[in-house]
Design a protein that fits this description.
With 541 residues, the chain is an alpha/beta fold. The strands form 3 sheets. The chain has an 8-stranded parallel beta barrel, surrounded by 6 helices. Helix content is 33%, strand content 15%.
Length: 541
Amino acid sequence: MNAVIPEPRTATPATGQAPGPRTAGPWRVHPADPALTGVAATVQALLEPHFGSRLLPLGSAHRTDVPTLTLALGDGADGSPAPIGVAPDGAHRPVDESYRLTVGADGILCRAATPAGVFRAATTALQLLVTSGDRVPRQELADAPRHAWRGLLLDPARGHLTPGEVKQVIDLAALYKLNVLHLHLTDNEGWRLEIPAIPELTAPASDGTPRAFYTTDDYRGLQAYAAERFVTVVPEIDLPGHCATLREALPGLPDAPVPEWLEGRFPFVAPLDLTDRATGEAVAAILADVCGLTDGPFVHVGGDEAVGATDESFAHSVRELRSLVRKSGKRPLGWQESSRAGVGPEDILQFWVDVPMMDLPDTADEIAARPELVAAGTTLEFVQALKSFFAPTDQDLARILDGGGRVLLSPQSHLYLDRAYAPEIVPAGREEDAARLGFPTYRPLGVEHTAAWDPASHGIPEDRVAGVEATVFAESVESLDDVTTLLLPRLASVAAAAWSGRAPDWTGHRARLAHHGRLWEQRGLAYLPSTEVPWATAHEG
């Protein structure tokens, strides 16, 4: 069996006696078509952490003693079903990412009808080269995605990463055939994108401390880097709530009207009131700049957890945010709560929660039985307030479907990868990391739990699913190592479900996953070696 993740749709062993190519020794990348020269350069860059000086320079002459990774335009995976969902690059129809890969005696041939398909084949080839032991078994693989949108949300607003670190995450996402990077750029904890119209947002703090953020050049560079890997960047400016940094930069903006039942009960950052002229002008300037800087077709406007706004104020704000994005020629996305401002066939809403999914206790005794809740200081009054505030989420999915909108699946229960790992699956010596990382009130769970998620389990008609997106919010994150420890090995499971449209078989998936630790190690990525997986050593095939 090969160790490719996502598991290819078909895998046919080759007949005959000749062995497959050796993984040790030199290799070369060769674009058989001039249109693939750029793809070949990107594939070369992805291979370098694994091959180093063994990788011949791009353009090297053919040598019979050196196996070749050949990239060619041709037929994709015949007979594969068309992908469902929304094309993240804005194309009217999803891009054909189907491919065929043939391992012969003298190398690997990646062929597809499009450069995107060729690139997906090349990431499969990279996995084979890293996980196959001394030789890559001769075989033919054919594959194609089921979901057109396969995303990962990264949260630099709370846990800032440098542009170079973000690029490492883009590479990781691309290696598992994800094609969207959703950047959560603003929140109460930070504002991470330069806005030329409002420089105060990224100006030094009042004590002179510089703020970490992405300049416009940084942002353009990240988008270009992602595009070379067939990944679309979707920026999120989270409004009208989650706005403490905006309020700090522009003091004096009035609060949104507060519901009577909530006023004075709990501390929260008041959402913005977009009926206020100064607020509306500031938000319009921000979104105009963000839309102008963004190459892709989508801009995410947030709309989640607007604690402290009346229903009327919230609905007005969401409608205004959508309108501003559309005026700038982009398509707005929003979290599921924004469905309460109305939904039409052009809307895409990101489904992340309902009250049952939150797994909240009903009694003080149940709180006492949950160490993570006790450690967070959770009270029964607070839990009851949460249930009250989140009660409308139980109808959000129906609102989206009834209005004709599409659903981007990001259920907190399985796809929020900022969940702590269950102590019983944490290996010796990693207990401190595992205890420190993860959102404090989520029940800690294992890798098998994430792998059990089935995109079809929510009962949404296929033509109404926009796609699948994992998230890794960064409340507990202090470094790139923290981010990748939360992501790995769970991201591979989500990627498998997003690509295939179904939960991977756990027995086969864990056997394949066992060989991916070396891939992450060679790329310098930290991960949590869960005891659920029989991790292969560096010398095992």
